Amino acid sequence: MNPKSNSIPNTTFSDTDKALFKEQIQQGIPAILPQPKPFESNINHAPKRKEILSADEKKLALRNALRYFDPKDHAELLPEFRAELNNYGRIYMYRLRPDYQMRARPIDEYPGQCQQAKAIMLMIQNNLDYAVAQHPHELITYGGNGAVFQNWAQYLLTMQYLSQMTEDQTLTMYSGHPMGLFPSHKEAPRVVVTNGMVIPNYSQPDDLEKMNALGVSQYGQMTAGSYMYIGPQGIVHGTTITVLNGFRKIKKTPQGSLFVTSGLGGMSGAQPKAGNIAGCITICAEVNPKMTHIRQSQGWINEVIENLDQLVSRVTLAKANNEVVSLAYLGNVVDVWEKLDQENIHIDLGSDQTSLHNPWAGGYYPVGISFEEANTMMAQNPELFKQKVQESLRRHTDAINKHTAKGTYFFDYGNAFLLEASRAGAAIMAKNAVDFKYPSYVQDIMGPMCFDYGFGPFRWVCASGKPEDLQKTDTLACAVLEEMAKTAPTEIQQQMQDNITWIKGAQANQLVVGSQARILYADAQGRVKIAEAFNQAIAKGHIGPVILGRDHHDVSGTDSPYRETANIYDGSRYTADMAIQNVIGDSFRGATWVSIHNGGGVGWGEVINGGFGMVLDGSKEASKRLASMLFWDVNNGISRRSWARNEGAIFAIKRAMENEPLLKVTLPNSVADALLDF
């Protein structure tokens, strides 16, 4: 199957097809079971999960799965579900996969009594679009295990509930399971999502594996399980800013310079596109042939190379000609680092974006073993697989150390590389044996340059599905930023100009995969002004409804000591008050849906993050909600960063208080170093 075939925004369907789609959504789990579906080997599937359940626990997993179905169907489904559990380590209920095309349809094609609910259905389907999702048949959007639902019964029930929802109801989602519709009120969130919220003492990786196999919890990443993923574009902007500022940090121009990294599945697939936009040479290694060729077919990489000698020749030529080119190496990144060291090819910027939050279940593949062999080993001999991964991490680190000794600037890209390398015994620690030898990109780049000033990944989706609506919103957003830049303080002029450049080039860079969506780094003032411009355009009939959201990789909402809050140095980096406050505050300030997750981004038990979605419909109520919620959503994070004594955040929160008299934030006092010199 063509990976792009499931994401066709302008496909015209007949009235009969649309009516059938609505009927299927409304029926939920069908009264008469559909026939079993063949396993489609051409689809990119999740690897088999390791055996972790006892015999009795397997029976419990089957009981848990069968409770979605009428007892008359249990005898027929039991052997099928048992086979799935044995073959894949999970019960996905493949038989229930819908026959209709999974894509972000125009909002008016969804059945329902509530426009907000229709918008949420649109976003759910976008997360499962074949062109967007990493493992669509396993309901996994990105990161190897970032799931929207645990099984297809949950999907069908959720869509049915949303089609029935009124503005006086709220749907409660427990780790992919729709607990039900509960009475609420018009100003309440329409959906409240929790994913993986377990008791802290049960938050080890094997706890996730067991609870997920039992069907009682899931790893939702963040934008996967909260219905706000917009394909690799979602991280392209942040990656572009990171690469640009990385070159600024080492005082080199991107042109003719080399950026080496790895990972093309899910969000990491944005890296080569970002490298092209930044203007450098990018090598991005990936072991999965399907993901590599999907990214090439989507135009996110320029060339695929499978031979190391050929890679060296191509990079040498690109450097000589000052090319802007993205090269995917189909193979292991450890081999790349080692080969470039042997050939004395200078790497300017280096990083890694494999899913090391999930190192034992397909997030990172060991060097010297084929992709297929590794997939078999991780399921059949997980202890040996873990040993091989840790050996590979030690080699990986040794190769990086050789390059940094020659002047390479290496940074952790928030994927837990430094953390897992340290756990593997790699030579990754600083001389004090406490800190890592290399910084997180948040510590050196995104934290002090963007997050502390309130700039983060604001995003929107045009619910009409019309490309022309997206173009109009780009124009509106650009106009807002250009007007703001005229009076913006010196401290944030660089951020403003980077974002103006980004939005002006967004159409030409062909960033859309799946829904008609856009991401744009903006501060609280920018987000509010842009959203209000959209809402006014909707009210005038210039564009259709717009769905607002953000990535978890943001100023606020995420407490992640090795990524989003890596530049918090007051000892509070392991606390999660900010994330919890964020989602509670968003819920009563007007969010259409809210979510709180354990684990998004850097691993189960390593982070807590909150997110939201908001539907703009052109109403005065929407205008009021967006102003209240977006202001809080950003300034909650700035206030926490300010209290940690981050200079940029102190500047930003003082500015926010000047602009909003109702905002009163406790500011820190500085302590003279000399007083503590004892």
Describe this structure in words.
The chain is α/β, with parallel strands linked by helices. It folds into three domains: 20-214, 3-Layer(aba) Sandwich (Urocanase fold), CATH 3.40.1770.10; 232-439, 3-Layer(aba) Sandwich (Rossmann fold); 448-667, Urocanase fold (3-Layer(aba) Sandwich), CATH 3.40.1770. 41% of the residues lie in helices and 12% in strands. The protein is built from 21 helices and 17 strands. The protein has helices at 15-27, 55-66, 74-88, 115-128, 152-164, 205-214, 233-249, 271-278, 289-297, 308-320, 333-342, 371-380, 382-404, 417-423, 441-449, 467-485, 493-505, 524-539, 577-589, 620-643, 647-659; strands at residues 140-142, 146-147, 169-174, 177-183, 191-195, 258-262, 281-286, 303-305, 325-330, 349-350, 409-410, 456-462, 517-522, 546-550, 558-559, 593-598, 608-616. Strands 3, 4, 5, 12, 13, 14, 15, 16 and 17 form a nine-stranded mixed β-sheet that branches. Helix 2 (55-66) packs across helix 3 (74-88), helix 16 packs across helix 18 (524-539) and helix 20 (620-643) runs antiparallel to helix 21 (647-659). It is globular and about 70 Å long.
